Every structure is written in C-alpha cells, then in structure tokens.
Predict the 3D structure of the following.
Amino acid sequence: MAGDAPGPPVKVLAAQLRGAVRGAGGTWQLGRAEAGRAPLRLRAVWMQGTVVEVERGGAPGGSARLQDGSGPFTVLGVEEVPKGRPCLSAGKYVMVMGVVRSCSPEPILRAIKMTDLSENPVHKNMWNLEVEDLHRVIP
C-alpha cells in the first residue's frame, strides 16, 4: 500500500498527520522513516478525539475542533454527514472519517462520517494502541 493508490481511511493521530506532505492527485505522504518504512500515501483518514468546540455558523456545513491526546485537529462539514446519535457537543468522544484538506500547522479534514463513541471508554483508552498496532503491520 505504501506506493499504491490510496485505499480506505487510515487510522492516524493528529501528531502523525501534522508531519504529512502533499502528494500528487490530492494525496498526502505520511512519513514513516522513524519506523524504517516508506511513506504511506493516503487521502482519507480515521481519527478519534474529544470535541472541544463546535462552530455552526462559520465554514459551510459547520466545523468542530477536536483533541486526540497528541494534538488538536479541525473537522469541516460536520453538519452534513451521517452521525447516528447526536455527537456534536463539547466533551463527546467521537470517531471521524474524513478527507485530508491540510496538515500544517494542524490537520484539517472534510468529514465523511462521524460517530459518537462516548458511551464506551474503551474506545478512548485503546485508540493510541490501535493506531500504533496498525502502523506496525501496514507495509
């Protein structure tokens, strides 16, 4: 997958995505030199974090600022995606799948899907380990 066309959303932390550089065709190159691996091409990501604030009037479709423990990130279009249970309030722990719009100075995504994970603390407690484990096995 490292050199192929981007596939499904890749689980990442805000700190990892902050170092990505723009590639060809709307993709991003996620550096993995510290792990001795080639950069990973991606377009869509899966991130999880706690909602810090929601802005319903600014960007078209609204936006939300989240924090995943490694840093903040912004999600655009939060009012226009499937969400299941209402999850757009400060303090909720949510999953976001989205297309990367920018990585620096902090990640900005255009939301594809959001889901409230607040009811089960295991989601938050295990997130860093899930991401770490995934990046160990992606070639």
In short: The mean pLDDT is 87. Residues 121-137 form the longest helix (17 residues). The two ends are 7 Å apart (CA to CA). Strands lie at 10-11, 21-22, 28-30, 40-42, 44-55, 63-67, 72-76, 93-102, 108-116.
